Amino acid sequence: PLQTTFISQSYTIKSVSRYVSTLILGEHEGGHVKQSSYSAITAARSISEQNSISLLLAGSGPSIHKAASHAASFHPSISQVLVADTDKLSHPLAEAWAELVHLVQKKGGYSHIIAPSNSFGKNVLPRAAALLDVSPITDVNDISGSQVYVRPIYAGNALCTVRYTGADPCMLTIRPTSFPVLHISSDSKWDAAPVSQVDLSTYSEDTLGKSRYLKHTSQDTERPDLGSARVVVTGGRALKSAENFRLLEKLAEKLGAAVGATRAAVDAGFVPNELQVGQTGKIVAPELYMAFGVSGAIQHLAGMRDSKVIVAVNKDADSPIFQVADYGLVADLFDVIPQLLEKLPQK
Ligand code: FAD
C-alpha cells in the first residue's frame, strides 16, 4: 500500500503544469524602452500565455523612470517593471549587468531569462549565465512551448531544434526580427503594471572595474533604425567609396529607409561598422531589402535572408545574391541608382 501511495503521489506531481515566469533584460534610450526589448516580451508570451513577465531596466537619472512608466502600461502581459536605479549601471557593461541579473534571479527565481540577440544581449546574457551556472541558448528564432527552441546554425543555412534540459533559469537570446512587437488597440484598458525598485543593498561590486565605459559613438541620423526599418537599402564593395555611399543615402531618404552595408564595404572604411548586415553584423528582416553591388556571401545572407521582398542589382548575372532575390536586375548600380532617384517622388 505504501508503494501505491507513493506512485500516485508522484503521478500527481508530474501532472501539475510548470509555473513559468520570465525576466526580460530591457534596454532603454531617451526615456523609451527599445523595440528589441518589447520583442523579447513577444518571445516570452510564446513560451506560455500564462507567463508572468518582469521587465528589468537599469540606469540612472530621470530617463529610466520615464522608460519604466511607459513600459508599465505598454502591454497587459507585463506583470511588473523592475528598476535598478544606480549610476553604476548607467552604461550597459556586461560585468555590471551580469551581477545585477544574478542578484535579481536569486530573489525572483525566474524559470526563464530573455534578452534580445543584439550587442547588449550577446554581451550580458552569457556572462550572467556563467554566474548562474547554466548554459544559455542563443539566437532563438522560434519557440515551441517552455523548453523547445529553434535557432539557426551554419550562418543560417540550417535550423536546429533544441530542448533545454538544464536547471532553471533557462536563458535565451532571441532574434528581435522573429518576434514582432505586440501592439494593442488604443481603446483597450487595463491597469498599468507595478514599477518596483530593485534592492541593491547586496549588489556586489567585486566584478566591476574589469571593463570601463569610455564613449558611445553613433551616427546622428533622422533615418530609421537599421534593425527595425521597414525598408533597407544596402551597398557593397562595388560602391567603391564613402562618397558614393551618399547616393545610397539619398535613395534611403526618398524611401524612408535605413542604410546597410556589407562587411567588405565596412572594412574598406566606406561606412561605420554599425551599418554592417550579416552574421557578424545586424540581423534585419524588413518588408523590402534592396542590395546594390552585393555578391551575396553566406555571411551576408545570414543577416537578411528573412526579408519579405529582396531586390538585387548586380553587374554579374551569376552572383549568388540572385538565388535569394525576388527581383533581380543585372545592371550597373551607377546607372540604376540615379535613375531611381530621378523617378521616385520626394518622400
Ligand atoms: P564582393 O563579394 O566583392 O561583391 C561585390 C559585388 O558587386 C560583386 O557581386 C560584383 O559583381 C558586384 N559589382 C561590382 N561592380 C558593380 C557595379 N558597378 N554595379 C553592380 N554590381 C557591381 N559579410 C557581410 O556582409 N556581413 C557579415 O556579417 C559578414 N560576416 C563575416 C564573418 C566571417 C567569419 C567571414 C569569414 C566573413 C564575413 N563576411 C561578412 C564577409 C563575406 O564573406 C563577404 O566577403 C562580403 O559579404 C562581401 O561583400 P560584398 O558583397 O560587398 O563584396
From TrEMBL:
Binding site for FAD: 237, 262-263, 276-280, 293-300, 314
Electron transfer flavoprotein alpha/beta-subunit N-terminal domain ranges (all copies): 22-212
Subcellular location: Mitochondrion matrix
Cofactor details (free text): Binds 1 FAD per dimer.
SMART domains hit by this protein: ETF (SM00893)
Cofactor list: FAD
PROSITE patterns per record: ETF_ALPHA
Protein's UniProt keywords contain Transcription regulation: no
Keywords of this entry: Electron transport, FAD, Flavoprotein, Mitochondrion, Transit peptide, Transport
Pfam families: ETF (PF01012), ETF_alpha (PF00766)
Primary location class: mitochondrion
Assigned GO CC terms: mitochondrial matrix
Record GO biological process: fatty acid beta-oxidation using acyl-CoA dehydrogenase
Listed GO MF terms: electron transfer activity; flavin adenine dinucleotide binding
Gene3D superfamilies per UniProt: HUPs, TPP-binding domain
Secreted found in the keyword field: no
Function: The electron transfer flavoprotein serves as a specific electron acceptor for several dehydrogenases, including five acyl-CoA dehydrogenases, glutaryl-CoA and sarcosine dehydrogenase. It transfers the electrons to the main mitochondrial respiratory chain via ETF-ubiquinone oxidoreductase (ETF dehydrogenase).
Subunit-level organization: Heterodimer of an alpha and a beta subunit.
Family affiliation: Belongs to the ETF alpha-subunit/FixB family.
Record PANTHER family: ELECTRON TRANSFER FLAVOPROTEIN ALPHA, ELECTRON TRANSFER FLAVOPROTEIN SUBUNIT ALPHA, MITOCHONDRIAL
Protein name according to UniProt: Electron transfer flavoprotein subunit alpha
Organism: Coptis chinensis
